[in-house]
Amino acid sequence: MAADEFVGRRQAVAAGLAQRKLDALLVAFSPNLRYLTGFTGSNGNLLLLPDRAILFTDPRYTIQAGQETTCRVKIAKGPLVIDIIAAIKKLQIRRIGYEPSRMTCDMFESLQARLPMKASLAPVSGWIEQMRTIKSSQELERIRRSVETNSRAFEQTVARVHAGMKEQDLAAELEYSMRQLGAEKPSFETIVAGGARGALPHAQPTAAPLTAGSLVVVDMGAFQDGYASDMPRMLFLGSPGAKVKRTYRAVLEAQLAAIDAVRAGVSTAHVDRQARRVLKGYGLDKAFVHSTGHGLGLEIHEPPRIGKLDKGNLAAGMAITIEPGVYLEGFGGIRIEDTVEVTESGCRILTPTSKDLRTI
């Protein structure tokens, strides 16, 4: 990511401080910290003022912080909070915004106990996360590369799937393939669930063997250059029967209907309703137990959420998933997902993998 993009983001936050009646914003949440600075270390805080930005970290990251960010870097020899409080006192900062859902209680209490008499902490929720919903062209390119790496790993691995293969062995091979292709890690714990276990939307792989005549849910994602991908695809070991084909067709039609509804200005709830409308026509709406999709980027799940109770609207530049699913106890589950870029007139599908039911 170009350094000037991080500078522009920090300037946008700095320009919004006065409107929120803040003298500074303290950012502790790692994805937000990376978004504003490029810093990828595990221990850091950013103190952002109208005229400067200071990154606090520890000696392990002296070289790394200097390489990754253009902020002033302060290396703390003890707890970061000590140096943050020293800066607050020196710069005579009065009202400091903080991320209430992102900061640990310990950090909050340590700050609160040490603040100068006239200084105070003010909760600021969702500001940076909202900025992150609209991706730059560079971010969209990183998401696209992550999606393509994930899809290639799936194609390479699925060719080796066979009856008797353990769920956890297939998951391990998928993760090994994505790393070989350039991913730094999975974006979530890879899901492989055969047969009736597919009815568990977040099933963990087990030592159970894949059996002939059964559905297999494969849900996988990669982090590459810090950006996430997410893709479930369905396998069937053998020749699927009428119920499997009908259920699969229902989920695919629901997914396509939701994708067709995506465009800038449309409510997220409207997109969700299109998927549920199709599944209701098949009598399967009650078997759809989660939202239709979510944003992704520096996190695997980030705003916006594409659900029936959500109030937001889509905007051009958002990267979202569309992933309706059906889960039937004793039968299994079917989930189909693509990552799409929202445009003014519709969307651009980033996931290249075929959505056909893959027979093994």
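Above is the first protein from milestone M3; the second protein from the same milestone is given next.
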Amino acid sequence: MSTTNPILPSQLLESAVRRDPAAPLITFYDDAAGERVELSATTLANWVAKTANLLQEEFAVGQGSTVAVALPVHWQTAAVLLAVWSCGATVLDTAAEAEGGLAGADLVVAAQDRLAAVEEEPAGGELLGLSLHPLGMGMTGYTGPARDFALEVRAAGDRFAPWTAPTPSSPGLQVGGLELTLSGLAGAAQELADRLGLTEGDRLLVDEATAAETGPVAWLLAPLAAGASLVLCRHPDPTGLATRAAAERVTATLGPEIDGIRALGRPA
């Protein structure tokens, strides 16, 4: 995606919607739960808009805000990340269990099974919990202070407009000692896609371990920048990946090696 103007993460998703609104953009598998969820570009954009409205209207997330994301690799994580960036805020990508890792976060978005660890951290911000239930059900058996994403996002609007337009030079991602601006995220994603040889129309299979190790620029933004779609596998059963790749018409992998399919980032 070449242009003289800075590109924002939200624009990468907008381009995917314009290119092919109905085709699968993210197909998510969780082999431990027997779960498969498929989202078109339009469906993902709707989730992003509703999530961004929830963050902005209920938690005042906007430019200058920092949102800590303590979520596993998941399709709902993709929606949360893109929503934070749509608001113009910074994603703090850190382990919730790390001592002091949430310091300075205005909002912590966490999976239900990580809320106990999050609540022990002196973050000072508000908490939003995700059940990650495939049918959109809320958290069960939880009585802590976190608000329930699944219940609250339903009432959020389907169209999003930020109160303040995101500034490309504003911080977009903080992970360890690394910081990328909002436009830097999109630029890094395009550079990585080019370096890996990821191209428009590719169907990329990524496993959970590789996605967690490489971060959201690699597993989420680079496919968007390239015009590719994503098959995201959590708790993958290695014995079934070749069959899945054939069924999903996978053309490339990041992490797993499957006979007959090019493995990105590895020697040919």
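Note on the second protein: The longest strand covers residues 24-30.
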